[in-house]
Amino acid sequence: MVLKTMNSMDIQTDNHPDNHIDRYMNYLLVEKGLSEKTIESYNSDITRYIDFLEDNKINKLSEADTTVILKHLIDLRKSGLGARSRARHLVTLRGFYKFLVNEKIISHDPTIIVDLPKSGLKLPEVLSVSEINSFLNTPDTNKPSGIRDTAMLELLYAAGLRVSELINIKLQSVNTEAGFVRVYGKGSKERIIPIGQYAKEKIDEYVASSRQILLKNHKSQYLFVARAGKPMTRQGFWKLVKRYALISGTKKKITPHTLRHSFATHLLEGGADLRAVQIMLGHVDISTTQIYTHIAHEHLRKIHEQYHPRG
Hints:
mainly alpha
């Protein structure tokens, strides 16, 4: 992708939106280090917005107010764009306008009081910390398979992994001494994620005591093995989670992805940076991660209502 470059004098004196898009795309590429695919997605969203402004005889970004942003979102809905896509589109515009304000190109951000389309926020089910603790303690650790299952569940929650990432982890990809695991996510993109003390201890216990028993004289490069040394399948792991969910007695529907959602939510509730959570989850687009902030905000709202004297 070819991006234009402009000096600061051009930006300050030329009000044509295209020039500001070029500057923002370069900022995302150079300063933020986003991938070309992500930048192209942002560019597409902003270009669509600029076309909307031009169709409505708005020639300067500074002339757009909150009403214009809302009208644009309404037009997107009328064109058939789903609520989730409209939410992503608004997140893109928020980033663009924040950049424009920081660069003193405009003085006001018209997106700041616009809420994300609520119907687009399909908030995932998450477990509380106590529910997580109860669920993770469900497997019978008197059995080799139970020790393996405990290690798998702990790692899934500790690193926020997808099922496909968990079952394909190689033995050499885990360094419990350093406290990291290497996984390959969508598009075979590698990421290295820290894991906590609980996961490290359970993995070490599994490797030391149970893995060889489950292998039964077979060899495997995979960390987690099933019968005859074969790697655990997606279906097999799903069945395990479903069985442990029933045993735990929770009324919530628990899937492997529930632990991934809980991982992200608990980090944000604890004050983690959204960008850091995005990296650990392996999300290419931060707007995908943005959904978890709404869960965290809801958690804070409930705390406020419960403990504030005028909540």
